[in-house]
From TrEMBL, chain A:
It comes from the Bacteria. InterPro entries: BFD-like_2Fe2S-bd_dom, BFD-like_2Fe2S-bd_dom_sf. Residues 7-59 form the BFD-like [2Fe-2S]-binding domain. This is (2Fe-2S)-binding protein. It holds the Pfam family Fer2_BFD.
UniProtKB/TrEMBL annotation, chain B:
The keyword Oxidoreductase applies. Residues 3-342 form the FAD/NAD(P)-binding domain. This is FAD-binding protein. GO terms for molecular function: oxidoreductase activity. It comes from Brevibacillus panacihumi. Keywords: Oxidoreductase.
Amino acid sequence: MTSPDMVICRCEEVGLGKLLQTAAAHGCSARELKLRTRAGMGTCGGRSCRSLILAMLEESASQAPGHDMPLGCQPPVRPVSFSMLGGTE
Amino acid sequence: MTDVLIVGAGPAGLSAALACREQGLSVRVVDEFYRPGGRLLGQLHEEPDGQWWNGLEEAAKLHDKALQAGVDIRCGVSVYNVAKADGNWQAFTTEGVCEVPALLLATGASETAVPVPGWTLPGVMSIGAAQVMTNVQRVRPGERGVVIGINVLSVAIARELQLAGIHVDRMVLPALSPVTSSAGHPEKVMESMLRVAHLAPSPLIRLGSRLVQSLGLQKRGIRFYPSGGIRMWGIPFQLRTAALEIVGTGQVEGVRIARISPEGVPVPGSEKIIPADFVCIAGGLSPLAELAAVAGCAFAYLPSLGGHVPLHNERMQTSLPGLYVAGNITGIESAKVAIAQGTVAGLSIAADLGKLREPEPLRHAMERVCLVRQQAAIQFHPDIALGRERLHQMYEQAQAM
Ligand SMILES: Cc1cc2nc3c(=O)[nH]c(=O)nc-3n(C[C@H](O)[C@H](O)[C@H](O)COP(=O)(O)OP(=O)(O)OC[C@H]3O[C@@H](n4cnc5c(N)ncnc54)[C@H](O)[C@@H]3O)c2cc1C
Ligand code: FES
């Protein structure tokens, strides 16, 4: 019933099937799953898909989220131009 | 020089700004939206006493007061990073770096998506987006909508859409999948709706009591749930129907639905496609705490508060000196609670900067948060008070270490 093509990470276009397969093949933590598939590394910084990836791991691999903020948050938390980060035009 | 920078001009941020100004601090508020008010904008619901809560008006009132008090409010400005520097906090904004002794994060909540095959089609939006289009921008999201996901937020907003004359064809559950977990499980959805309904006087209580009346006990109830759903304000709530796919070429044209068992498994042969030109997906809310994470705050995972929240105490201090939180970043609650928390945060900051003229108002403000919480017309989770208690314990334990 679950569709493997269903997009979970919209920014990086990662489907449910790929995430489930990768999680099963490597027994991944959320962070490792992100590094292997790029899910959560897109322009939104994981704001849209973070909770979905966590729900998926909880459901499929019985990994309940811990107290630490999962999948880290890296600055910049909003898309910004290089010049804003201090570069020159 | 600015004493306090507040990220977020929602109810929490604006009320905190006012409290700071009243103690003589200089305050700047930044918000990335083009107008202040946060998620107050667009809220419209009936209070238990029959009065209407109009978020647009409440936002305008807070904004006016803040302006009159001399708060420097800047909209259309995002904060993309925060860091500690020489005892101060630096906020990196799209207008440059702002360095302050006290930084308050009042960034609110973000919506959780509900992935259903086809959810990337144009015409699919989060329920909050439909609320903003309808009540803030006054644009019709479409002619005939289906809401996928039944929870406190989607029920409240479906009602708002209907009040605006927008046709909501029905509310259904998302198909069971590894990402939707309990949102696709009729028994669990029913259980959580009933638990919240008992606590919230209005408008959910009416839905709740109708569910209870017509269904008796919940386990049995969901088994005999009418296939057409139960109507509330004329909108069918179909807890025994799931959206399997959103269909259309180039844009939403319909939703493929099926009857489901009490556990959420589709009944073979019951599939059909219903027409729709827009679909709202509603997976609930979680605290938007990315800046607190970047700053290096300690966190706690408490599902009753909506997920991961920065550890903080009743004075809204985080684990990091000079960094404060207020509003939905601390847990998902109604706007009135956010306003009350903002006042606490503002006074707390004034106290820490040695500007609080007398201690009484801070104590009163803290008591007020609990009172407002008890009387809230909308409760997002039945165990909020317990979650808060647990959080404060964790904070104390962490500080003692
Ligand atoms: C779609 C939706 C509908 C809701 N409906 C209701 C309802 O009907 N009734 C109810 O009681 N509650 C409702 N809520 C809950 C709502 O969150 C609270 O009522 C209240 O608005 C929370 O106030 P706040 O000040 O904490 O955050 P918000 O009101 O969310 O304000 C936060 C502000 O911070 C800004 N911001 C966030 N991050 C940044 C950044 N990095 N840089 C700059 N600015 C930033 C945002 O633009 C936003 O304006 C709803 C929430 C959502 C998301
Ligand atoms: S949706 Fe995954 S990073 Fe944006």
